[in-house]
Write a structure and sequence with these properties.
Elements: H1 11-14, H2 19-22, H3 30-42, H4 47-66, H5 68-71, H6 77-92, H7 105-116, H8 135-144, E1 147-150, E2 159-162, H9 166-183, H10 188-198, E3 205-208
Antiparallel strand pairs: 1-2, 2-3
């Protein structure tokens, strides 16, 4: 027969800890607290998904940079200077045969570095002026990713524009939304436009007149 103790457990007494004992073992400074918050936010998506979003954002930044005369206003002045410096390094690179190197490793790395340095809510860390991104601009970027091929059943050499697959289209749109979320910015307006267009993104190819 088990022995039952008549002694009542005093939980309140057990939890009555002196103030000195209640102090945390480690006191984190603001920088460490911010990093802990960032780690928690980063955990909401998988590393593979984040890598894909960053890659898509880099492609978008490169496209805008290459059309600086049209879309250079999406970059902060400091970002634009850093990208120009990285681009110059890439232009100076040569292959083993002495030809220009087209890998653009320096500017790609700089884009990744700038995107990785974003701190939510701190606009001084934003490499892009998000308020200057319009649906028209982003749709042109998506359009630039199309491929042009020769029609299979064409004897006249007609060309066919092959658009992005719907899954690829959605991935780039998700990357844009991710960029806004990382910065702590509202992106409902662009979301509405993107979804509206996506619902009509049905055809995968369309013929164009040969040049």
């Amino acid at each position: 027969m088990p022995i039952i103790s008549n002694k009542k457990s005093n939980v309140a007494a057990d939890n009555n800890i002196d103030e000195e004992e209640a102090l945390p073992l480690f006191v984190l400074d603001d920088e460490e607290l911010d990093q802990d918050t960032k780690d928690v936010l980063d955990a909401r998506i998988t590393p593979g998904t984040r890598k894909g979003y960053i890659g898509s954002s880099v492609a978008f930044m490169l496209w805008a940079f290459d059309s600086e005369n049209k879309y250079g206003d999406i970059f902060t002045p400091s970002t634009l200077e850093e990208l120009k410096a990285a681009h110059q390094k890439d232009k100076e690179r040569r292959t083993t045969k002495g030809k220009p190197n087209k890998s653009r490793d320096n500017i790609r790395s700089k884009c990744k570095e700038l995107l990785g340095a974003i701190t939510k809510g701190d606009e001084s860390t934003f490499p892009i002026k998000l308020e200057n991104i319009t649906f028209c601009m982003f749709s042109r970027f998506l359009g630039s990713l199309r491929k042009v091929t020769k029609g299979k059943n064409s004897n006249e050499g007609d060309k066919v524009i092959v658009r992005l697959k719907l899954s690829s289209y959605e991935a780039y749109c998700s990357a844009l939304a991710y960029l806004f979320t990382e910065c702590g910015k509202e992106h409902a307006r662009i979301d509405f436009d993107v979804v509206y267009w996506g619902q009509r993104y049905q055809h995968t190819a369309s013929p164009i007149t040969p040049r």
